[in-house]
Structures are given as structure tokens and as C-alpha cells.
Amino acid sequence: MVDKNGRLLGKVDYIVSDAWTGESSGFKVSLAKSKTDLIISTEHVVEATPARVRLGVTLEELESA
Fold it and tell me: What tens digit of pLDDT does each residue of 5-36 get?
């Protein structure tokens, strides 16, 4: 997963699905530079391909929200 500036955030471990609808609702990401994991909502995703997921925000913007 990369942020809007192309900076590598980490690896997507799995896709989080809504239990009622089965739709994807987020991604669990292991951050590359820390031992912290994040759950990132699909509302922040601007592009998703089999090779990468690109966000429309930076990690700093996510942390300050």
C-alpha cells in the first residue's frame, strides 16, 4: 500500500469485509517502518490493482484524523 505521494506504507495482510453485505470495507496493513498495524477504510483508496493499493491521503493525514 502506498500513500498519495507514492510512499510505501506497508503490506496489505488481508481485506476486511462487511459481515452483512460481504462488501470490502477496509484493509489491514502491516506498516513497513513500525510494528503497528492499521485498518484503513476503502473510502481512502483511489486505486486498487493486484499489485498495489494507492491511497488519496498521506499517513500523517490518517494519523491526525
Answer: 999 999 999 999 999 999 999 999 998 888 88
Domains of the chain (ranges, CATH numbers): 10-64 (2.30.30)
Question: In sequence order, what DSSP letters do the residues of the chain get, joined into one string?
Answer: -B-TT--B-EEEEEEEE-TTT--EEEEEEEETTSS-EEEEEGGGEEEE-SS-EEESS-HHHHHH-
Question: Taking a C-beta distance cutoff of 8 angstroms, is the pair 40, 54 a contact?
Answer: no
Q: Coil, helix or strand for 56?
A: coil
